[in-house]
């Protein structure tokens, strides 16, 4: 086992972030939901409502036991459901992987990391506060910066552009591949495979 493998051989929580409801489904802020939906398709199961305040799906990815988590709260309250699910399944912070949109990574790219700040992301801020630590894994799916003077808070709540939507299924699939690689091979190997340049 690689020493930078999430969860040290135990169950792993893969939490995708987004806002609930059909009006948000195509938003940039919801790309985390899109990625865990893709992973759910690979597992071959359906999400079920859970007492943690999230929808969860248990299964196996790349030979490891995982729980996919989609909070049913709004983004800035993601911490309660994510941490509630992690505690229910007895998963330590080192076994939590959060998949989220990232303004500072261009659309079409992604970054994997352990720990760090929230970079103004309210979902991460809520999870860090609820977990009591920043030491959890992140799959940062690039959405790029807003054009011109558009407020980032407005930008993340808009749907992907027409051009981006053509590429989006591929980008979501690659982000799901990266999450699987992180789970199977550890952070360094996954970074080497998925970080461009």
UniProtKB/TrEMBL annotation:
Keywords assigned: Cytoplasm, Hydrolase, RNA-binding, tRNA-binding
InterPro entries reported in the protein's UniProt record: Pept_tRNA_hydro (IPR001328), Pept_tRNA_hydro_CS (IPR018171), Pept_tRNA_hydro_sf (IPR036416)
Binding site for tRNA: 24, 74, 76, 122
Record carries keyword Signal: no
Coiled coil: none
Keyword Chaperone: no
Subunit structure: Monomer.
Record-given protein name: Peptidyl-tRNA hydrolase
């Amino acid at each position: 086992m690689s020493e930078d493998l999430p969860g040290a051989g135990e169950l792993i929580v893969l939490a995708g972030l987004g806002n609930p409801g059909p009006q948000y489904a195509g938003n940039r802020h919801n790309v985390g939901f899109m990625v865990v939906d893709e992973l759910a398709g690979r597992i071959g199961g359906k999400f079920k409502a859970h007492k943690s305040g999230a929808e969860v799906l248990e299964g196996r990815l790349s030979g490891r036991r995982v729980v996919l988590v989609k909070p049913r709260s709004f983004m800035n309250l993601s911490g309660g459901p994510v941490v509630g699910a992690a505690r229910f399944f007895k998963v330590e912070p080192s076994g939590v992987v959060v998949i989220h949109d990232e303004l500072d990574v261009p659309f079409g790219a992604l970054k994997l990391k352990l720990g760090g700040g929230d970079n103004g992301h309210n979902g991460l801020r809520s999870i860090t506060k609820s977990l009591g630590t920043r030491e959890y894994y992140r799959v940062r799916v690039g959405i790029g910066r807003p054009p011109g003077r558009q407020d980032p808070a407005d930008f993340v709540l808009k749907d992907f552009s027409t051009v981006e939507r053509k590429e989006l299924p591929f980008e979501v699939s690659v982000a799901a591949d990266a999450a699987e690689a992180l789970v199977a091979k550890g952070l360094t190997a996954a970074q080497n495979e998925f970080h461009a340049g």
